[in-house]
Amino acid sequence: MSEALVKQTQAAPRPSGNAAIALQGVQKAFGRIKVIHGVDLEIEKGERHAIIGPNGAGKSTLFHLITGKYSKSAGNVFVNGEDVTHMRPFEISRMGLSRSFQITNIFGNMSVFENVRCGLLWARGYGYSFWRLLGLEKSLNDEAAQIVYDIGLASKMHTPAGVLSYAEQRALEIGITIAGDNDVIMLDEPTAGMSASETEQIVGLIERVTEGKTLVMVEHDMSVVFNLADRISVLVYGEIIACDTPEKVRESRAVQEAYLGAALEEEH
Fold first, then answer.
1. Whose CA, among 70, 72, 121, 245, lies 20 to 30 Å from 38?
2. Cα 14 from chain centroid?
3. Contact 76, 25 (CB under 8 A)
4. How far apart, in whole angstroms, are the C-alpha atoms of residue 251 and residue 247?
């Protein structure tokens, strides 16, 4: 058996016991274009972790590799100690990971309550065959109503989601994301397109609903990143050039030269 084949068939080494997410040598190429170059990263349980970088750095690609939307060209991904490298998104979700999308992903003709209830049903494995069960699920309905309250949309409980403001729709999507009660939450650009006041509200919501959970977010707003994150990974041209506390990342000359200086100037 060739050395390459032996390496391919060997099981990936297990990450540390406290890792909620672990990436080992993760790569992604689209044809001949390599976008992610062998990323190694461990995110601890209960940590709030931000992934930042300039446009085209590969942040969204890395996000999709973790959540199973994209297949990996090489490397392994673990969620709560389980190898999810070749799992599909719904299978990864059942390992304890929920995600939001960069573009708001809700059912506009359904009410706020119905959107959250769909999130709960999907997380429990009912898929699209659940309609006959709705009237029987009092506990499910109570749980959906509680989530609507938690995300600050109780007054819009029965309002069609399509008529909500942009910030309210983002809050609703966060509610759908947490509906499965998973302990790892991934948010893709949660404050994109928001005003300063809307951003402040969403940051407060994220802090509340992810308390005690692992949070991983791709985010462009540096004020959000430095207010929320325990650690920051800086991705540049598909490689992590720094992974540390916000203070140390801010002080890093390599990060300033590659990205952060220009990003902070944009904030002002």
1. 245
2. 22
3. yes
4. 6
The secondary structure of the chain in percent helix, strand, coil, rounded to multiples of 5, reads 40, 25, 35
**Both tokens assigned to 135:** 């009237």
Query: Which residues, in sequence order, are bridge partners of residue 236?
Result: 239
Give the phi and the psi of residue 166 in degrees, each rounded to 5.
-60, -45
pTM of the shown model: 0.84
Digit-by-digit pLDDT tens for the chain (268 residues) are: 444 443 444 556 677 679 999 999 999 999 999 999 999 999 999 999 999 999 889 999 999 999 999 999 999 999 999 999 999 988 998 899 998 865 567 889 999 999 998 888 877 666 555 555 555 577 888 999 999 999 999 999 999 999 999 999 999 999 998 887 889 999 998 998 899 999 999 999 999 999 999 999 999 899 999 999 999 999 999 999 999 999 999 999 889 888 765 555 555 5
Name residue, tokens 């590799």.
65
Residue with tokens 């309905």: 141
Specify the amino acid at residue 70: Y
Burial (CB count within 10 angstroms: exposed 0-12, middle 13-18, buried 19+), residue 158? exposed
Could you give the count of Cα atoms lying within 13 Å of 230 in the half-sphere of its Cβ? 14
CA distances from residue 12 to 15, 26, 109, 198 in whole angstroms, order as listed: 9, 12, 45, 43
Secondary structure of residue 251 in the 3-state scheme? helix
Q: Which two tokens stand for residue 86?
A: 């070749």
